[in-house]
Amino acid sequence: MKGGLALSRPANSTIDDQIHTLPLQATYYLPAVSYSRAVLHSQYEPGQSVLRGESIAQGVIAPTSGTLRAQVNHAWPHPSHLEVPTWELEADGLDTALPLAPLAQNVTTQDKLSRLTMAGVQGLGGAGFSTAKKIERVLQHTERTLIINAVECEPGVECDRMLMQSHASSVIEACHALVEWIQPTQTLFAIEDDKQSAIDALTSDKTHQQNPVLTWVTLPAVYPSGAESLLVQRLTGLHLAPNQRAADAGVLCVNVGTVMAIYNALNGNAAIDRLISVSTQDLMHTTTLSVRFGTPLNAVLKFAASQHTGLAEALRLNPTAVQVGGPLSGFSRPIDNAPILAGCNALLIGPSHQSQPPSACIRCAECATVCPANLLPQELYTAARSDDHDVLKHYRLDACVLCGCCDVVCPAHIPLTQWFRFAKGSVAEQAQNEADAALARTRSEQHAARVEQRALEKAVADEQRRSAAAAAKHAKADIQAALARVKRKKPSA
Amino acid sequence: MIPALQSYRQANPAQRRDTTRIMTRVCWALVPGTALMALWFGPGVVTNGLLLILLCVLFEAGALLLRQRSIRHGLNDGSIVLAAWLLALCLPPAVPMFVLVIGAAATTLLGKHVYGGLGQNPFNPAMVGYAVLLISFPQNTTQWIEPQWLGGWFNPDTWERVWSQITASSGVTSAWDAVTQATPLDQFRTATHAASSATTSASGMSGMSGMSGMSGVSGVSGVSGVNGSNTGIGIGSATSIAWISLSAAWLAGGLYLLFVGLIRWHLPVAMLAAATTTYIVYTVWMPDITLPLPWVLFYGGLIFGAFFIATDPVTAPSSRSARLWYGAGIGILCVVLRVHSNYPEGVAFAVLLMNACAPLLDRVCVRDQPQ
Amino acid sequence: MSDWLLIVISAVFVNNFVLVQFLGLCPFMGVSNRVANALGLGIATTFVLTLAALLSHLLHTYILVPLDVQYLRIIGFIFIIAVVVQFTELVMRRHSPLLHQVLGLYLPLITTNCAVLGVALLTTQQQNTLFSALLQGFGAAVGFTLVLILFAAIRMRLDKADVPKPFQGAAIAFITAGILSLAFMGFAGVT
Amino acid sequence: MTWLALTSLLLLCLAIGYGFARLGNSQSSEETLIERINDCLPQTQCAQCHFPGCRPYAEAIADGRAGINQCPPGGDATIHALSELLGVEALPLDKQFGVSKPPLVALIDEAVCIGCTLCIPPCPVDAIVGSGKLMHTVIAEDCTGCELCIAPCPVDCISLVPATAEITQWRPAAPEQRS
Asked: How many domains are contained in chain A?
């Protein structure tokens, strides 16, 4: 990969090599918002009790058994800092699971996909896209490639490494099950070369050695080699057209955590939790927690502080702000009871630091040298400022993965990634408006054509009726004339 | 910047810079050349530099004030100091004050602030200032004195001229009494003109010659069109040693910038390569040109232009292939202008012409090849 | 062969019609806001200019001079240019309505474009052969188009610059054109 | 001699004039212009521009009978697109035609609706479903918020609500520009 940044943790930083599982919470918060940010509705009545793993709405799974309260506006971990309608689930402490029978191997693909949807399996790499839809698109292709993405390239995010290190055998099993199901012509297990402990754990696993179906691809530890579009183009040499997803080209690129979630779902337990790495802003201390979706943020941080003195100290120093996501791709938010969701892979205690006020861009093209997608951020920046969509399209804004490398190297401290997020939003908004306009136009043309047609028919019908009436009047006159003649001929009759 | 990346920035010094540091680094790279020039041409070079920097900073402050922008923030990126310094190096020592004022105004206002400040000007500000001065005051911008090692510093006449410059008194306007021989490039140009006996040298502008373009000693004294005494421009004459040592100093500064990673090799290499090939084509096409090849690079401002003027990131194109074309364009135009046009040293015009092509080059050379 | 090249080079660079002789400034300023429009007008002007130079030379040598009515040349040239422009407009309307739509306003403007009349007058004045007149016209047009496209690319970037209020729009365009002609003065004196 | 020259020029121009006449009757480009103006309009068919729909407004612009800033739903985007297309100056939205509002859709209050079907014909995009004495409702995805159904309703049961939830409409904000 050209460009990118070789980011490394501080030399003497410590990583707690043990996964701590969060105890059961009193209440869980389940936002009623889908992947495309549409508001969801559910047929469950407030006060109804649910079991663990029960699907309340599309993609929303109850993390534990308890009673469902009414929807209420609640904080949501999203850069918009908006409040969204959220279901509150009061745990009853029993944590009884919804009985889900493990699926046999020879079950049809459709059953497997519906099981994934019901179990709420979502991408854990950060995008949170529904895995069932992704697999469904890949299965339409005969020539399929499976890429297991264990490239955790952002420093301060250790959950994939911890997962592979501590559950190596089940990870291999999960990979084999997925290979069994998808039958890809080629399976690549992409991992970074600075995760040697995880690589050793996986390669020394017995089942892997018996039937080595995975081919290992170790990549140099350069951020952001883990971005899906970049990884797919790099490993398969395939050039994705603008807005074309890897799945549409028959390549299933899936995070190693998601592979585990698929394996668990097929074996009967819903995707209700994930691993999260919690660390301090300067990445000196990192620990890994297993957290259920919907757990409030402050509970997670309090528990992390209880497990690790370094984190406790950090939380004590800045108790108000936390960065959700990695050091480069994360966003800052206040510490409150906003729920942890599938897309959140890391928490950094402390506010994300504001760089100096930006000065003018001198077009030095440092950002172009580090851009992993081979773009010209300085041209995109000028176009984004003047909101010129043609030029944004000309310089391929859609290929930008918002990795943040250009922000790091910009000598004028310009928030380039935030400009590109704004530009992508404005381009998407205009595309939506154009689609609505096209729909409204066809409907109004059809409406006009129908009204015209209706008027034409009415005119023709009137014409016929009038001529018929005239003919009828004419006929009546003839009859009367005939009767009059008859009367005159036979006066006495 | 997220502290986690401080370790990254410490690990990669190239990433530790910001705009101010870039500009100051380039100024440091200019110091050896300027010092050598001051030694050869006397204190006038230093006064040129200081006065111009002062005037440009004043104009910049005024412009920022007019646009209600914070003067401190605007000034501390040092870009105007660099532009003023580059312009000062193009002018003969101790030019009169009005030339400096108009040059500073052209560079700061016309070159940069009319387009909205740093980063938005299509033309290199120093070259805009220089072109304006060159065309409006041909006499003052091309009358160079003969380079004497440390000579200028002990000659009372130089100090008097410097004093008249500073006090802006127009006392000393008589031509230099020590008018010296033609510059190597000027000789080179008149040789070609004489050879092709074209009529143009009789046109109005021809009397004025020897546009130093950061170099060259004017020999043809003013309008009379009489060739100066040519005490030879062969290797080893005082003039050639001065200019070669100066170009060597600029090369040293340029390599330092390249080594530190402030500029990329594409542009200077493309420019020098294109200049050499064009020159070779000319020697084939017009056999009467005698100047041996290596000296073409070292005489005149080619090296100075390649490393300091053309590599101004604001006015150069920003994608890799576009920079190669841009450098090649400047190299070719520079030699063409040297051979043909009235001004023996065409770096200033070549840079301005290619600045005009930079936006088009950027649009055309879009990097759309896949990974 | 080399003197043909010299004619074209001198027409394109040395005495460029727009930046050195300051002819044809209104379309130069008017149509240079988009590179696509500039290219369109450039091609149209090249077509018109070359044809006009040819026809005006024919008119001059075979009608005006033998009949000794040189004083009619202004009317004759303007008539020829109008004919050629009208012909171009029809061809363009038929073949690329999109380009015609964009240039609709500026195509008749070429008729009154002083560069076109300038070429016609200059080529007939300097007693050169038919072919060199054609070359001169073509060189002038190429010069006009080259500078127009460069200027359009610069203006597209200037639209995004935060130019001070009084200089926005045409003012900054004139200043940039001024600096461009300053740069073109470097070619002065090239034989 | 001059008479000879003038007559020859006259003949030349007559011949060329005849040639142009035959060449000149190509398909009028008026049609493509209206089509391309219509492409820029938001197609809400709301008649706030005092024309019965977007296409009539496009025809009016093509004939010069209407300005390019009479379309409130289109707002600045439409004005900018039209000024770009026609090469005319982009004027700000003319207040007398209304103010550009965030996208809205009509909503029928089902408790009040008496099923009189008066609101169905005026809807330019057939977004209202219902028949005589039966419940009516608006298809939210199709409704363009043109407010033409509000006036005819005898019981005033139609109101305007935001088209999509605030969270769906949210877009990342631009970084604040340096002064």
From this structure: 1
